[in-house]
Amino acid sequence: MNSFTPNEMMTIAAARALSNEDVCFVGIGAPSAACNVARLTHAPGITLIYESGTIGTAPDVLPLSIGDGELCETALTTVSVPEMFRYWLQGGRITTGFLGAAQIDRFGNINTTVIGPYDKPKVRLPGGGGAPEIATSSQQIFITMKQSTRGMVEKIDFYTSFGHGDGGDHRARLGIATKGPVLLVTDLAVWRPDPETKEFTVVSLHPGVTRANVQETCGWKVAYAADVEETPPPTELELTTLRDLNERTARAHAAGKGS
Amino acid sequence: MARFMPLADAVADNLRNGDTTAFEGFTHLIPNAAAHEAIRQGFTDLTLIRMTPDSLYDQMIGMGMAKKVVFSYAGNPGVGLLRRMRDAIENQWPRAIETEEHSHAAMANAYEAGAAGLPCAVFRGYRGAQLAQVNPNIRQVACPFTGETLAAVPSIRPDVTFIHAQKASRRGDVLVEGIIGVQKEAVLAARRAVVTVEEVVDDFAGVHPNACVLPHWTISAIAVVPGGAHPSYAHGYYARDNAAYLEWDKISADRDLFAAWMKTNVLDAGPDAFAQRVADL
């Protein structure tokens, strides 16, 4: 077995959670890498959808943006953005929405809007984009992000995309019928919500990772499942697929001219 | 009725100080040449509407042209933050701007409602989202049939919309291909529409019957500007200049560097510069 980085483990562990039957609404960055590794390994039949309107896309390199030409050229069909959000997302046709996050809390609520107060932000982040409705209209949500005490916080500064709110049946009380966050994959661990409280709970530690590592990089007190497993290390195929994809991507993105 | 004219005239005839305007394009076909012309002509107090403001509105905001920005994702796609827009919001430089922030679903619905001549858009959205608490234009309505609580936002009705497209016919019909975003809705929602195109063809014979075509009578002015979407791309013509977006992150990080870049590449340049910028893409 080759050695691998925590980032590679994160992407590969996230990829494994996707199946051939999934219709996946793909966020840019780490989610996009995981979705395409799944497509190139165990889930060749997966339907990948990007919010630019591309349905059933199969990019050879990872797009830099959600609307790169590669996505349209390899898609089954490309629809308008209003149609994407109305018929395909709001219509309930997405099985899994796959999101990244700047800030997250233990209930899978996501902030990508501001650090500090909304009216006087310390840092103005890009905002929600498609995420607020992806979070509530997809049948379920996967989240992937690197662990840090800045990113995984006791209280997020802004509720951009609703996860499980204050936990328990908070989604149902707001009239949200979908499952919400069911999986969080970080560079250190795999987390799933507790069935009752909905607090994210570590179910699997990546190889070589200790509980102390997880706690040091998380702003809330980490809860663990009764049986915490070790995440199986990347296989040769998974690792080669991811590295080849990243290499092709880096080559393609460096090829532009600049101004 | 679409009239062909030089870009400078198309912008001067259709944009006014204080207008509500949309320069649309969802990653693809972003009307950068038209925006640069608007910057050269120095319009002020604009309300800028766009789902994904990106480097184009970063430039207009940095030049002090915006009074208000209506948006749903203020990022440099795949790269990071919009540093000129941040400077305006966080430090009021070069002037304070108002913001009205939505989700993509809300803005896509609002453009569609604008195109449909409706006063508002209704959709299942913003549930649990805090934007609904900070933006008074996000409200709730009850479905009169089922009682379900739905989100409502005002429709978008720009004074003028700018888009870039691949082709115009000699008659002035416009063909948009690839990732079509909200361009059709943004044009139909607006009082006036200005289109820059890669080229003019005799007609659209042979084009698929379901292609995205805007009839000439929905458009005010057309200017032929090859490369006019750079650094975004035009499907079938040239690729996205990802390196330029990465470079923008550095240029926009510094006020002086930004000003110098704008002088060289926008103020002292013209629409003809765009063709050369995409020559090797």
Q: In CATH, what is the homologous superfamily of chain B? A: Glutaconate Coenzyme A-transferase
CATH topology of chain A: Glutaconate Coenzyme A-transferase
Number of helices of chain A: 8
Helix content of chain A: 25-40%
Protein name (chain B): Glutaconate CoA-transferase subunit A
InterPro entries (chain B): CoA_trans_fam_I, NagB/RpiA_transferase-like
Organism (chain B): Ancylobacter polymorphus
Enzyme class (chain B): transferase
Give the secondary structure arrangement, pairings included.
The complex is a heterodimer of chains A (259) and B (281).
Chain A lengths: L5 H11 L6 E4 L3 H11 L6 E4 L3 E2 L13 H5 L3 E2 L2 H10 L5 E4 L3 E2 L5 E2 L2 E2 L7 E2 L6 H7 L2 E5 L25 H4 L7 E5 L3 E5 L6 E6 L5 H6 L6 E8 L5 H18 L6
Parallel strand pairs in A: 1-2, 1-5, 5-10, 10-11, 13-14
Antiparallel strand pairs in A: 2-3, 3-4, 6-7, 8-9, 11-12, 12-13
Chain B lengths: L2 E2 L2 H8 L5 E4 L8 H10 L4 E5 L3 H9 L3 E6 L3 E2 L3 E2 L1 H9 L6 E4 L2 H12 L4 E4 L7 H4 L4 E4 L6 E6 L5 E10 L4 E3 L6 H7 L2 E10 L10 E3 L6 E4 L17 H10 L3 H13 L5 H5 L4
Helix pairs in contact in B: 1-2, 2-3, 3-4, 5-7
Features:
heterodimer; A: Glutaconate Coenzyme A-transferase; 10-stranded mixed beta sheet; two-stranded antiparallel sheet; 14 strands; about 20% strand; B: about 280 residues; alpha/beta; Glutaconate Coenzyme A-transferase; 3-stranded antiparallel beta sheet; 15 strands; EC 2.8.3.12 (chain A); glutaconate CoA-transferase activity (chain A); CoA_trans_fam_I (chain A); NagB/RpiA_transferase-like (chain A)
